[in-house]
Amino acid sequence: MDYWREKSREMVDHFLMNSKADEKYLLSPLANTVDAFLGRKLTHEELVEEAMGYMFAGSGTTSSTLTYLLYAISRPENMHIQARLRDEVSNISTAATAGTEDDIVAVRKNPYINAVIKEVFRVYPTIISTLPRVLTEPMVIDKYKLPAGTVVGMQNWIHHRDPTVFPDPDKFIPERWLASTEAMDASLTPFSIGKRNCIGQNLAWQELYWAIICIMRAGLETKVGPEMKDNDMQQEDRFNTAPRGKRLMLEVVRVTP
Ligand code: HEM
Question: 43-254 architecture in CATH?
């Protein structure tokens, strides 16, 4: 905790010393503008707290999602998914845009790559804890009348596995997203919904796209290693989930030059 705080302070100080007010960094709006809720600029200590928050919110979440993505496509029954992913990426990189800034745009538009990421979000949502909200007015849910002030919350683990929306809910089937229904789209909530949903979701998507491009473009094939035990990849809920076995061991071979 002390190390995390100290490094965040160093980064905030570096940012304040080296950036101009009109430069666009993640911290710029916080450092340079009046906070609408507080009616004043943030203090130095509050900026450090915010930097710590970004670091926590933005690192374990994305890395856990990437870990489960690699796990899902490296399971023996899913090798066809990995092969298709490699094909899709290599088709993009042999296209006219290869190696240019437009590359990422082509990847972002690729239905299959998006389908794989969405299926990872669905089956292995990294934030599965209840996200508490306080009712500001009464609400009726089914036969229950909840008064204002009640703490309510949802767990995406539950609705991501609703069999009426996602048939065979425990199975990892990216193809289901190639013809998604309105109910499916509405039920996928890895970043939560409403006013306090994830402000880093576009960055998270972008990082996952880049990771997939790099791994697939390197022509690597990954398989779950023999040392992995059945429950090693069980999601342990530490608010941000992580594999119970604390590691993902993969065998990696190069399959294309
Ligand atoms: C796969 C990656 C990610 C997932 C699954 C994820 C998920 C979430 C969820 C579910 C929430 C809502 C928490 C709540 O309701 O209490 C949230 C909030 C937040 N996320 Fe993310 N996140 C990811 C990546 C990121 C990244 C890359 C950043 C920034 C660098 C980030 C910054 C934040 C912040 C600052 C909040 C709090 C927003 C607020 O309270 O208004 N997240 N995230």
Answer: Orthogonal Bundle (1.10)
